[in-house]
Amino acid sequence: MIKSFHPPQRILMGPGPSDVSPRVLEAMARPTIGHLDPAFVQMMDELKGLLKAAFKTDNELTMPVSAPGSAGMEACFVNLVEPGEKVIVCQNGVFGGRMKENVERFGGEAILVSDDWGTPVSVDKVKAAFEAHPDAKILAFVHAETSTGVRSDAQALCKLAQEYGALTIVDAVTSLGGTELEVDAWGIDAIYSGTQKCLSCPPGISPVSFGPKAVAKVQARESSVPSWFLDKKLVMGYWGGEGKRAYHHTAPVNSLYALHEALVMLQEEGLENAQERHDHHHQALKAGLEAMGIQFLVEEAYRLPQLNTVIVPEGVDEAAVRSALLNNYGLEIGAGLGALAGKVWRIGLMGAACNRRNVTLCLSALESTLVQMGAPVNAGKALVAAEAFYKG
Ligand SMILES: *Cc1c(COP(=O)(O)O)cnc(C)c1O
């Protein structure tokens, strides 16, 4: 007989999912109702309003796609890229590479602008790409590259795209709720995010927003959108006009309760306060890690507070450290991806997981593990440095 599944208690300080607040888990356990029930439709309208506030946009076409962040990515590319169109794609980590895949699968021509992993997208290189390809219709880039812990200058990149008459597709999966993000003020045309990073919801939903120029482009398409499920024209009938809904697919009712609750919590805290909290605990973690003698991969000016990529000390078996943290402390941190596999750890401070208790636990657990392995770190310094930061 197979028994019920009871997951172990963990503290999630990796690249996502992040710790989910008990309030959000409780919301998810509320009774399932029909997805066209008037009470659910009203909740959806509130959810749209909360998402607009989180994205800082008035875009009518702002909605949660019923699938994870990767589907939000695909929703943007499948609707906005038409066969034969040139799209400038910035790649400075894993997720830019997926954008290129999306462009090519939907018949577009990807003009790749590559930067080293661990550095931000170069605005100058993007400008040169526009000069070489003035017919490029879209600029696509990742705001917060979770594979490296780098923040790129979304505002400058969007301004550049506007100068060259191109639309922008922005990946904000890791930035939403953790880093300054202004959809309308920066002129972002299409943006997608995820629930399981700084919004601290269970994974599986992707908030997406399309601005007026993006909507006009979808409406003027000559070819039909090559995905039925993600076709925004069809989804608009479901999530569009206030209070009225036509069946498109069965919404993930309970997951949307969770997202509603997480966004209510974000509203209570205040978006700016949430961003400051991420920065504050990042500073404490940094003070502790540096006192231990651990170095960051990314230059200070481009670091993401919610995703700290640090270099594994010489001679240390990085996977053994992660296993020890998980087995002895219930603490999950992330490994390096792609070019950085085996070389770095990715320590997340996302959403509900971004707090003083977790910073303290992570520093002491990491120090104790590294000291036991005989790694070259300064013992006894990390907590003192973090506490000194918190005392101000
Ligand atoms: C996590 C992530 C994604 C993918 O989201 P999923 O929910 O895993 O599909 C896309 N882009 C970035 C930057 C991410 O961090």
From TrEMBL:
<feature type="binding site">
    <location>
        <position position="346"/>
    </location>
    <ligand>
        <name>substrate</name>
    </ligand>
</feature>
<keyword id="KW-0663">Pyridoxal phosphate</keyword>
<dbReference type="InterPro" id="IPR000192">
    <property type="entry name" value="Aminotrans_V_dom"/>
</dbReference>
<dbReference type="GO" id="GO:0004760">
    <property type="term" value="F:L-serine-pyruvate transaminase activity"/>
</dbReference>
<keyword id="KW-0032">Aminotransferase</keyword>
<feature type="domain" description="Aminotransferase class V">
    <location>
        <begin position="36"/>
        <end position="337"/>
    </location>
</feature>
<dbReference type="InterPro" id="IPR015424">
    <property type="entry name" value="PyrdxlP-dep_Trfase"/>
</dbReference>
<comment type="similarity">
    <text>Belongs to the class-V pyridoxal-phosphate-dependent aminotransferase family.</text>
</comment>
<dbReference type="InterPro" id="IPR024169">
    <property type="entry name" value="SP_NH2Trfase/AEP_transaminase"/>
</dbReference>
<feature type="modified residue" description="N6-(pyridoxal phosphate)lysine">
    <location>
        <position position="197"/>
    </location>
</feature>
<dbReference type="GO" id="GO:0050281">
    <property type="term" value="F:L-serine-glyoxylate transaminase activity"/>
</dbReference>
<dbReference type="GO" id="GO:0019265">
    <property type="term" value="P:glycine biosynthetic process, by transamination of glyoxylate"/>
</dbReference>
<protein>
    <submittedName>
        <fullName>Alanine-glyoxylate transaminase/serine-glyoxylate transaminase/serine-pyruvate transaminase</fullName>
        <ecNumber>2.6.1.44</ecNumber>
        <ecNumber>2.6.1.45</ecNumber>
        <ecNumber>2.6.1.51</ecNumber>
    </submittedName>
</protein>
<dbReference type="Pfam" id="PF00266">
    <property type="entry name" value="Aminotran_5"/>
</dbReference>
<keyword id="KW-0670">Pyruvate</keyword>
<dbReference type="InterPro" id="IPR015421">
    <property type="entry name" value="PyrdxlP-dep_Trfase_major"/>
</dbReference>
<dbReference type="GO" id="GO:0008453">
    <property type="term" value="F:alanine-glyoxylate transaminase activity"/>
</dbReference>
<dbReference type="InterPro" id="IPR015422">
    <property type="entry name" value="PyrdxlP-dep_Trfase_small"/>
</dbReference>
<keyword id="KW-0808">Transferase</keyword>
